[in-house]
């Protein structure tokens, strides 16, 4: 056996997307300790950059050390207790996974179904909110990767708030590709992934929890069933917590009214910069990559990144339509970063075409998922993959292979 040297490919599937060399180089820097002061500073920068990407001031914003599915589980295991009712919108594969998460956390899922290829219907959601006044949470997928549909997160969050429900939002495919406005929309808990529009290798899941979600977490009657994803524990690493001895020191000190200046200073600095304690060994080099990817997003600017995704989508759409493809999703709800096209009737072996694209053109596109397997292709324009050059290569390769 020898070292592994994969052939470089153009990644135009549903993720992972192309990873810029700058990010790969960041990953190759020396590994340092997960409690090294330099690493703690990097963690703080990652949190600040994620707040920029999510457009939020929520302080509990950080990457879970595992892929997007772990971000999903983090939201459900922390916010759902046995017996809780959760309204889950299902319009594709990832909505069905949310249902599974609710059930496994001991909750009762009230499912609002929409056809695959359609966005979540706010009217249906409103009716269910009326008929289930005890529902605690509304969960939905902002950008359904299995179909390429964008749902109206702003309206859905407003409905949930009007009915006193928390929101859990899947932004795995939306973050960095289309606006995700956590504060403006009043999202309570949100999760994403690194391997889509952030163009960072897979393996981390940025999350953000607002004050209403934290209050629910703090009021839990039962312990979170997952030790690894229990936010009350992970927080001690990402935000810091007073150690027991510090707490005792402070509490007993507070009982005494006499206090020296130095004691007071010690207390103040402990509050501002609380000690981080070991929870798990963070994937250090993956964090370097996320930091670099987020820096690149901030340098480009959110609006410019969204505009780039949209322009590339329009260029791809025009070329695909000229080749005779039709889109699964209505124009009004199409995700620029994930283009789901119906496979033309003349194509008898769609897998053979994808294989030829991969082997002859070094270009990956995605197969249909779930109910759309064999019927659709998913062409991703995520993060660095959203370039005019990639669109032209993809159109050229498809033209050649379709004959
Ligand atoms: C919308 C959505 N949610 C969740 C996930 C799960 O993320 P991961 O595969 O990183 O675990 C994905 C992955 O494609 C996704 O597209």
Could you characterize what this model shows?
- It is built from 15 helices and 14 strands.
- Mean pLDDT is 92; it is low at 242-272.
- The chain is α/β, with parallel strands linked by helices and 403 residues long.
- The two termini are 39 Å apart.
- The structure holds pyridoxal-5'-phosphate.
- Pyridoxal-5'-phosphate is lined by residues 14-15, 67-69, 72, 94, 141, 145, 170, 172-173, 193, 202.
Widest β-sheet, arrangement of strands = 2-10-9-8-5-3-4
Low-confidence stretches: 242-272
Q: Which range best describes the helical content: under 10%, 10-25%, 25-40%, 40-55%, 55-70% or over 70%?
A: 40-55%
Helix/strand/pairing category: alpha/beta
Text of the CATH class of the largest domain: Alpha Beta
Q: What's the SSE pattern?
A: EHHEHEHEHEEEHEHEEHHHHHHEEHEEH
Total number of helices: 15
Task: Calculate the mean pLDDT score and round it.
Answer: 92
Q: Total number of β-strand segments?
A: 14
N-C termini distance: 39 Å
Bound molecules: pyridoxal-5'-phosphate
CATH architecture level-2 label of the largest domain: 3-Layer(aba) Sandwich
